[in-house]
Fold each of these.
Amino acid sequence: MPKNSINQLAKELKNFLATQDEDDLITAAASTAAASVSCSPKEVTSKEETSSGATLTIEFRRSTPRASTVTASNTADASIMNTTQKQAALKELAETIQHCSRCPLGATRLNAVPGEGNVNAELMFVGEGPGFDEDRQGRPFVGRAGQLLDKMIAAMGLTREQVYIANIAKCHPMVDPLHPDKHGNDRAPNAGEIACCRKYLEQQIAIICPKYIVALGGVSAKALIADAKSLGALRGQFYDLHLDNVKLPRPVKILATFHPAALLRNPGWKKDAWIDLQMVMDKLGLKGARK
């Protein structure tokens, strides 16, 4: 094939792929990937064999997702929705999550766990992923760790119904997915699973638009704060939240603290976690539970 024909082929292929919806490309890749799949490749490689037997390789980086309005299928603009709009957008997003198969977790879960709470919450808690109990009920933080989180929220002077609770991953990451009824089968989501679910969480944050987010545990903290530091190094200060796929209607601050499951294993850390929560309380003007 003449050189000018090869160049034209490369140009046409690049233009075609650049116009495709990111979700379509991701879904197609995720359906054939292994369990360690990453759904956020930085580049796509295409190979075409020419008539002379040579292989033409084309590499290019993906463009930034286009921003539009806040719905379950689009990214967010810079406006804050009213309560009815938020409820509708979150419902649509939850339905999308329930039918999601973008990564292998969708094939092994019992129930997807989108999140729940006050759509107008000023405070949002984000954990790492659903566990055994959450997988069965389809609700976040309903096991032993969830019971402790409820107590932490109550100590702040709030109720579960006043905040919003979600996870980075929306399906149960299991050590042994062939035996979902086995207890102690929980694990943290891997990088590929986080990448697949990240867009869902970012849309939830943009819809609810809380003033503050508490990242529960190192997995959540590192994913949202985008810092390679340990959880211990991330704690003790607020960070400006920056999202990859959406534009926030207003600035959101994020604070990292221990995951409730870690506090159950290490009760001595509860004092430090309470110090973290008091920082949020001070910003929100909360006085804590009455004794």
Amino acid sequence: MTPEEVGARLVALLGAATTFEVAFGQLHVDVPATEWLAAARAARDDEALALGYFDWLTGVDELDAFAIVAHLYSLGHRHHVLLRTRVDRAQPQVASLVELYPGAGWHERETFEMFGVHFAGHPDLRPLLLPDGFEGHPLRKDFVLAARVAKPWPGAKEPGESEHGAPSRRRVRPPGVPDPAEWGPDATGREAGTDA
């Protein structure tokens, strides 16, 4: 099936609230958050689609909402889809895909930890990567990173920025570029555009 045929098949199975687009040969299918689990089930169980291989899942902070994206692949038919939904930023929650794709467990845990999106029905939604007691969600755009003001950088960022002073860098011309004193408008004894 072509990407357009796969997208049309999913829209036919899921209804008018589902849309799709093909960009750069990649199929993107957008579903409402309430239909997230049903969309994944239809993609997996429909014989014409057979998208039974779960590849990855992640979140994207779009400032006004979070996009949840899952990449599904059909081993038999060799087509794939990016299944997307958007969840509210104030209460980011969507159904877990673990019952359909057990491999989604780790991906949902990471997305929960990094973005704060809750996956309803996940059997073990606990931190995966960050140390115990870590506060916040580091991949959100509103997460404030520790600045060098809080902990000074141990060395100079650039030559000459240290309070002790530093030797300046030796200027090196790129290969094949002649010395301006020998060629061009700065050449001694002649002006630009005149023959010697």
